[in-house]
Design goal:
Elements lengths: L6 H4 L3 H7 L4 E6 L2 E13 L27 E6 L3 E7 L8 E11 L1 H8 L12 H8 L11 E2 L2 E4 L9 E4 L13 E4 L10 H4 L5
Antiparallel strand pairs: 1-2, 1-7, 2-5, 2-9, 3-4, 4-5, 6-7, 8-9
Helix pairs in contact: 3-4
């Protein structure tokens, strides 16, 4: 197992962290067991001037972790259904984070299947931000926790060469939707579905 990524890994520009998290391993340890997966898709949300970032609403009780120290988990609930997990970036007081959008499962796959439902195909277990949180048991109790120790941590993993990294506009949002801040491992089957318009767009 690779070492846990130190806090200073996250104390950089959010776009750089988003690219460098590809290949790293997100893991959780709960009373039900340990699960992990290699990060294959991320999105950067870069501050109060980013209309798609929660920090655009300012400093509130919900967004407080975004303003915290780099290397914290920012976990929030959307659509009344799904949890999403982010890694807080840049120095304290500069609200920004990387959304973990998809994982390639590594450890605890049977537990992931149980959590997600036995009918889920392997490639559907963690190919979206809500799916991966359900599979790894990530919920609001982990909001604001350090990513340097249990129950949630990110470790060094596989080094992804630059030619295998693809950049697109972020998906599933309506504001600042054309900003090229989504990063993925090209050809990985666990990447979430890319909208047709982006699939046909010329590569960056």
């Amino acid at each position: 197992m690779g070492r846990i990524l130190p806090r200073n890994f996250y104390d950089r520009e959010t776009e750089v962290v988003a690219r460098d998290l590809l290949g790293a391993v997100l893991e959780t340890a709960t009373p039900h067991g340990r699960t992990s997966g290699m990060i294959v898709e991320t999105e950067a949300y870069i501050g109060e001037h980013d209309a798609a970032c929660h920090a655009a609403a300012g400093r509130t009780q919900r967004t407080e972790p975004l303003y915290g120290k780099p290397g914290l988990a920012y976990v929030y609930f959307i659509y009344g259904v799904h949890w999403c997990v982010n890694a807080v970036t840049r120095r304290e007081g500069l609200p920004s984070a990387v959304l973990i959008r998809a994982l390639e499962p590594l450890d605890g796959v049977e537990l992931m299947r149980t959590r997600r439902g036995t009918r889920a195909r392997d490639t559907d277990l963690t190919n979206g931000p809500g799916k991966l949180c359900a599979a790894l048991g990530i919920d609001g109790s982990m909001n604001g926790l350090s990513l340097q120790h249990r129950p949630i941590a990110i470790r060094e993993g596989e080094s992804i060469p630059a030619e295998k990294i693809e950049t697109t506009a972020r998906i599933g949002i309506t504001r600042a939707a054309d900003w090229q801040l989504r990063y993925l491992v090209r050809g990985n089957p666990w990447v979430s579905r890319t909208p047709k318009a982006l699939r046909n767009a010329p590569p960056e």
